[in-house]
Amino acid sequence: MNRKTRYLAGIGCIAAILIALVAWRITSNSRADRVKPADRPLPVDTSVVTIQPMPILLTAVGQVQSEHSVQVRPQVSGVLKQVFFSEGQYVRAGQRLFLIDPAPYQAALASAKAAYLTAKAQADREAPLADKDYVSPQEYESAVAAATQAGALLQQAQINLAYTDIRSPIDGLSGSLAVKAGNVVTPADTSPLVVINQMRPILVQYNIPQQFLPEVRRYDRRRSIRIFVTREDGSGNLGEGDLVFIDNSINTSTGTVMLRARIPNRNTTLWPGQYVGVSMRLAMQPDAVVVPQTAVQTGQNGNFVYAVVSGKAVIVPVTMDRQVGDAAVISKGLKGGEVVVTRVPRTLRAGLPVIVNSGGPPVAAPPPAP
To answer: Which of 285, 312, 335 is the last residue of a domain?
Structure first.
């Protein structure tokens, strides 16, 4: 076989191989077409629709406020002689905070006391003389008035001296010191010596839309409302307490009404000025229909879930009443006991066969403890 013959034979062999590969590909595609992807069962995660107690909640963003805040100011002028606490220290009612130099007020008290004793003695001497008309009634009345005035001046001197010893009027946390020892302080100073904020209990103020006010008032009459405070993003548990105030008017510019809750704050987790998340538990719904929130989908006609019926995905329209944590409370569309798809693949369609990967009750956020 010459070179040309061998070359033509090689070309023919390659052509035969290519024709065989094309035939195999066509056959494979034909077989694949017989089993369409849409007909293949799709693995899905599922959960059983449950009926369980769930809280009826309203949520808002609130701000922590001290229920009692005191600006400690001097009532008399003088040199601030001594400070008896540290900035940021928790102080008790009656605890000594500051001492203004008492020496000038001690001297003024001694002078007032001497003047009072003199005036009183004069009035006492003239009393029997007035009874015998040895002095005129006008003279005696003047002596009595002088003694009374001297007594008032003595009392004022005693008060002024007491003002030099400044004590805390409440239990609370002290702020920063505006004035250090050695400076002269006066009642006319614009800044207080220190601000003391009551920390236990503490208030949380927040607003709710006006349309919820009738419902809040209705549950408030039952004394069933409980307040739960979290971080601003809704995480963590910073405390719980009771609703103590509903404002008597609606803010016309925002359409909201202001409320306050009192929180014991025993661990001082809440701080004045802090923004927090607020959940109002109005009541407990004993027989709520609950699914995982991930099962609820949104379509052109509203919310729906994929239920698994006879091994296929079926669209069930639902009305979601509210979301509590990772759970959705369904008011219409489900009755409990249905199996729904909790993690919906993008390729899932109505009527598609499915294979259940898992099942069980939904992972629902438990209602806050009473």
So the answer is: 285
